[in-house]
Amino acid sequence: MKKDKLYVRQKKTLADFNFGEKTAQVFDDMLDRSIPLYRELQRMIGEMASEFVAPNTSIYDLGCSTGITLSTLMQAVSQDVKFVGVDSSEAMLDQCRGKMKKFENKRPLKLICADLNKGCAIQNASVVVLNLTLQFIRPLCRDKLIQSIYQGLREKGCLIVVEKVLGNDSLFNRMFIKFYYDFKKKNGYTDMEIAQKREALENVLIPYRVDENAALLRKNGFSQVDVFFKWYNFCGILGVK
Fold first, then answer.
1. In sequence order, what DSSP letters do the residues of the chain get, joined into one string?
2. If the chain, 241 residues long, is cut into consecutive pieces of 10 residues, what is the mean pLDDT of each piece?
3. Domain for residue 11, yes or no?
4. For position 65, which CATH number holds?
5. What per-residue confidence (pLDDT) applies to 64?
């Protein structure tokens, strides 16, 4: 696993954060060091997917990046299903293809390069995962994406959403962010790295509050919605059709 050093040096000008080749090479390390309890989140995603999956359906990982969650799903789900990974970055999908070689000829898999801002054709799905993906979709496009997921899910199918979130109050928001940056420092990131990445993400990652994310699912048809994970400014939400 290549170490994340994308922002280790002071940059005169900062471009918006992107999911290109340089990011793809260090993305797994970035996730481990930047997302609290990431491996436990993976375990929970696999556990919930195995509860809702139906035989002869499809499982979608939207924003599949390097394939960590796809690997989790393939190991957690024993039923005969098809796996579909969608990402807008060919560099990420290249990394994903490397991970998927160990499952070659064992689990049916289709990888698609597509911009989720334009929606996504979901067909015969029993499980759909948006793991730290929805926050990168333009707000005006989020309704359309959730609608397409709902329409493509079978009855009793589930949508698993993990997001960085805003606090309901400015006091909590500041406190949660402080704790989060402390977490990143404990994992080896410097103040400069944290500040530069925050600036690069400013116009790219647009978080909602927990209640706004839950309302987005309910508004677009999900009748049962609940929070399954919460760590300061990170949250996991489960929606069932």
1. -----TTSS--SS-PPP--SHHHHHHHHHHHHHHSTTHHHHHHHHHHHHHHH--TT-EEEEET-TTSHHHHHHHHH--SS-EEEEEES-HHHHHHHHHHHGGGTTTS-EEEEE--GGG-----SEEEEEEES-GGGS-HHHHHHHHHHHHHHEEEEEEEEEEEEEE-SSHHHHHHHHHHHHHHHHHTT--HHHHHHHHHHHTTT---EEHHHHHHHHHHTT-SEEEEEEEETTEEEEEEE-
2. 94 94 98 98 98 98 98 95 98 97 92 96 97 98 97 98 96 97 98 97 96 98 97 98 98
3. no
4. 3.40.50.150
5. 98
